[in-house]
Amino acid sequence: MEKKRCNWCGTDxxxxxxxxKEWGVPVYDDKKLFEFLILxxxxxxxxxxxxxxxxENFRAALDNFDFRKISKYNETKSEELLQNxxxxxxxxxxxxxxxxxxxxxxxxxxFGSFSTYIWSFVNNVPIKNEWNNMSDxxxxxxxxxxxxxxxxxxxxxxxxxxxxxxxxxxxxxxxDHIKDCFRYQQV
Length: 187
Prior knowledge:
The chain is mainly alpha-helical. The chain has one domain: Hypothetical protein, domain 2 (Endonuclease III, domain 1, Orthogonal Bundle), CATH 1.10.340. It is built from nine helices and two strands; from the N terminus they run H-H-H-H-H-H-H-E-H-H-E. It has a two-stranded parallel sheet with strand order 1-2. Helix 2 (30-43) packs across helix 9 (161-170) and helix 8 (142-153) crosses helix 9 (161-170). It is globular and about 50 Å long. The model has no long low-confidence stretch (mean pLDDT 96).
């Protein structure tokens, strides 16, 4: 019998693997949280499958999402990234990646870790929603609005409420698997 999944992943093997192994699993590691944040910012205006297909290219181009290295990128490195056909070549998003790395480090210095900061918005406990259909799942919530506003105040770019809610879903701050998805009870 085939597993029941959230319908957004369709039948694409890469999408299904991401859904089955990553989406909605709580992430507390700063490096992984940064990776998802950067991928989500590049995804703005595009489909997530596009980003997933380029994920390994992003990993190679962005020093394995090492925020300390990224925070030191200069104009030469920015131009190199703009020429890299393996990633999304958007000048504003590339600049945002660098400034977001700097802001990420500042949060770590203030809170001890980005994980401590971001998880505090949900009292360190994943929100478990009970959706029957993907059409019930919101694009934003009051919490994503608050996080977005706070991140922007701290200098982050491309972190609107929709991007932040997608980040919350991806990193397990919220469980938005539909109730009859096999992953709902697992995460």
